[in-house]
């Protein structure tokens, strides 16, 4: 009788309003993104390979006591992608694009020091890796069907960072300053590929496309807002439009102080943003953007996670909840990476779990 009543209510648009209806992780995340949240705050731990290597027992404990509500689809392709080495293994890693990363130690992905395109004369022979467009849809869909969690795409759409991987970070920033015509051609090639990749993943049963570009330094953007808006914001709008056409959400990660471009990301249609909220000021973010975008974490990993006291960890979580929650709009995300004290990462999720579940609310019309 309970399940029959739940289904009847849901068919009339009263999704999960009846308190007896079970709510799985996917539904919990969707209600959070829709600002119709009830229940506990959804969780998402970012456990980097470094943590698995150095704190395996803590990782197991975190996974056991605080299971995630969000997961990532496997990066499943029909053909070999041609990658060489391990993405998080010491030594050299070559990705599917042919970009070479120098990894200083196990558990950490390094930097590109040798450009894939060192001279613009090499641009004519540059080809994006079409192998990444041949997604194994059945394998991805089978994974999605096996989950009650909210599923992100198994790829990262990252035009700004891809430019850096191809040209190196230093040269890419010089290119954006000087704006040679070859830069526009390269950016167009990158964008056209990511448009195809976004659609390839949007055609699967995932819940959200995943964008990732680090735009900020500690105190400001790596480029001017004008450069961001002229070159890259139109790209993000295109990716969001693809997601919209296929009924997908859009999640994005960007490190650093990106306060100046958050309104642009909201206007473009990004639904959830993972950013360094303590770098920018939690209270100011709440005053400007609360209820307009979902804050997908995080807790300060520059000071609080490596050095903070138990009290400071608790106060940080409470600040995120107090200033950013708006009947949704908050995901309990935190990273467990180099330098973080495992006790502090554990207390982050312990504190989130202690926050009383929110009551059901009438859905918005």
What's the gist of this structure?
By secondary structure, the chain is α/β, with parallel strands linked by helices. Helix content is 43%, strand content 13%. The chain has one domain (25-77, 133-354): TIM Barrel (Alpha-Beta Barrel).
What is the overall silhouette? Answer: globular
CATH topology: TIM Barrel
CATH architecture: Alpha-Beta Barrel
Estimated share of beta-strand residues: 5-15%
β-strand number: 11
Alpha-beta content class:
alpha/beta
Spatial gap, N to C terminus:
27 Å
How many helical stretches? 15
- Spatial order of the strands forming the largest sheet: 1-11-10-9-8-7
Largest beta-sheet details = 6 strands, parallel
Domains (count): 1
Radius of gyration: 21 Å
SSE succession:
HHEHHEEEEHEHHHEHEHEHHEHHEH
What average pLDDT do the residues reach?
A: 93
CATH class: Alpha Beta
Portion of residues in helices? 40-55%
Describe the protein's architecture and organization:
The protein is built from 15 helices and 11 strands. By secondary structure, the protein is an alpha/beta fold. The protein has one domain (25-77, 133-354): Alpha-Beta Barrel (TIM Barrel). It has a 6-stranded parallel beta sheet, sandwiched between helices. A 3-stranded antiparallel beta sheet has the order 3-4-5, covered by helices on one side. Helix 8 runs parallel beside helix 9. The longest helix has 22 residues, at 181-202.
For this entry, give a set of tags.
365 residues; six-stranded parallel beta sheet; 15 helices; 11 strands; disordered N terminus
